[in-house]
Amino acid sequence: MPKGLHLTAIWGATVGSIASAYFIICANSFMQHPVGYVINHAKGRAELTDIWAVLTNKVALAAFPHTLFACFMVSAAVIISVAAWHLYRNQHLETMRPALRFGLWMMIAAGALTILSGDQLGLAMVETQPMKMASAEALYHTSTGFNASFSIFTLGTPDGVHELFSIRVPYLLSFLSTHTFDGTVEGINNLQAQYRAAYGPGDYSPIIWITYWSFRWMMGLGMIAILISVVGLWVTRKGRMPKNKWVWRAATWSFPLPLAAMVIGWVFTEMGRQPWLVFGLLKTSDGVSPGTTGVEVLISLIAFTAIYATLAVVEFRLILKAAQKGPDEPTKIDATTGELLHEATVY
Amino acid sequence: MSLPDLWFLLIGLFFTGYFVLDGFDFGVGMSLPFLAKDDTDRRVLINTIGPVWDLNETWVIVAGAALFAAFPEWYATVFSGFYLPMLFILLALILRGVSFEYRHQRPEHRWKRTFDRMIFIGSVVPAFLWGLVFANLVRGMALDKNFDYIGSFADLFNAYSIVGGLATLLLFFTHGVIFVSLKTDGEIRVRARKLAVRSGAVTIVIAGGFLLATCVAHGRPLSIVLSIAAVVTILVSYIANVRGREGIAFGFMAATIALAVASLFAALFPNVLPATNDPANTMTIANASSGHYTLEVMSWISLIFVPLILAYQGFTYWIFRKRVTRAIITAGAH
């Protein structure tokens, strides 16, 4: 196989992965903020009228870079962890030191872009799903300016309605939601009344303690990962190798942070949409398939959980083994033709 | 031809392509305990499909996605009505897929044998269940006026659908064994040729019987013509195989599977899922399809991407066109 084609193949994989992420986000964004459709009342369904509107959904345009850069944070964390593991053991220095520095820079760059795109996504969310933002802050009453504060940490009664203790940053929620310090952020009670008027009686708020805490854990874990990278760049500046083993342990164990942040972020955005499957159009309770029984769904849930849990353990061990093995020998290149020597067997 | 009719045809083509392609790699997976005498043999077998099985499997994603977008009602009823069979197909494909990747990761005999077993089971289960599902589609199901399936899981297992499952199982098995004879050399090639003669005879009886039953109960002129053509091609494939003409045997076996699947879609047309309880609830191309605009968008996207996918898949087959032998396996680094 010629060298150029070999290179094309890896770029094909990259472009394909990113394109598939974009289309998945477009589908998900339709559920957050449906656009480009018309309701066909005769058939009782939504029908596509404008594919371009779906592909340029303002939620998708913000959520796609947010998800993509978060993925790059996860990759950066894996590079950092593997490189730190080897450097702590003083092996493969010529490969692992540049890898570590690359990973740390990548984490900071991807982290900054995740924050910026997350901010844009927040603005789109306030506009299209104000209930999600209100429940992210557990903001029951509509607030303006100073009072639209962001709580970093709150202890409350178990139902989340009454607050006992809280660390708050005034103006911050106003700024996050509107990019101004005197903006108004609508509260859950107010939105609840609006939705009841529009969609009929019912509860239109998600489970508040999940949205409140998932929003904080997502941001907090992501920020800690970025912070570790900033410190990491500083302590390894100009070829330095810190002696303190805790520096290396922190770097090695940083890989679950962005991964957890990403999973929790999905929990937030999906739980924050509840009780809707497609916001404003279809409730989750109305989306249940009549032809499928509860037992069947239970069987599939148990089967998927069991198989994916088992595979996760096997996969993690295999990745660990591959990572600890260190870099492969350089790929052999045919001296006369310049072609990569192609391995005849894959398995 | 109207757009919904075109998409019925395209979905038929996608499933046909899927069964022809993934069919032989199911067959290779199922043949492991019959053709391999040691680990090298098993690696020869796995490497015959190693570079292509996942390409082959993309066609079921294409077919499923096309079904979802072009015929949302059909998709909803099929995936809810066949919830458990579809679940088992999916789980089997997951286990089979990871087994190809995990098998060579560790040297222990027990590790390898575990994944060999999973490859076998992961090939048998979908090979049988796809036939069961398609037989039930042609036969029809109990549907209410919203096209929701109102039968039970047990109703999916009837004499006709079980024979349908055995028919695809045997077709894919023989297809895969012929593929092994075409893609390997030495003793295993000879063993594969002999096994294909024996399994081919059983396949002709069962698959022929299934097509006959389909023609008698659900036949339409086109489906009967296609079924007869399928029987002719499988006989040609069998004779070619007996005479050691592997390429011809494989080509005609592929044609057999394509014609058989096409005959099932022809038997359905213009319905997509007959209601066995009340003909008024039968799902048709007209009442199950998407809006015109959706189909138009899908047609443009397919016009661009389907040739592209075909081109790079064809290229992959070309790159890996050589026969896989024990010598190549033992010379490899793994």
TrEMBL record, chain A:
It is found in: Cell membrane. The keyword Membrane applies. The keyword Signal does not apply. Keywords: Cell membrane, Electron transport, Heme, Iron, Membrane, Metal-binding, Transmembrane, Transmembrane helix, Transport. It is a multi-pass membrane protein. InterPro entries: Cyt-d_ubiquinol_oxidase_su_1. Its main location: membrane. The chain crosses the membrane at residues 7-25, 67-88, 100-118, 215-235, 247-268, 297-320. Belongs to the cytochrome ubiquinol oxidase subunit 1 family. This is Cytochrome ubiquinol oxidase subunit I. It comes from Frondihabitans sucicola.
UniProtKB/TrEMBL annotation, chain B:
The chain crosses the membrane at residues 6-32, 74-98, 119-139, 159-183, 195-216, 222-240, 247-269, 297-320. Keywords: Cell membrane, Electron transport, Heme, Iron, Membrane, Metal-binding, Transmembrane, Transmembrane helix, Transport. Coiled coil: none annotated. The keyword Nucleotide-binding does not apply. The keyword Cell membrane applies. This is Cytochrome c oxidase assembly protein. It is found in: Cell membrane. Pfam families: Cyt_bd_oxida_II (PF02322). Its main location: membrane. It is a multi-pass membrane protein. InterPro entries: Cyt-d_oxidase_su2.
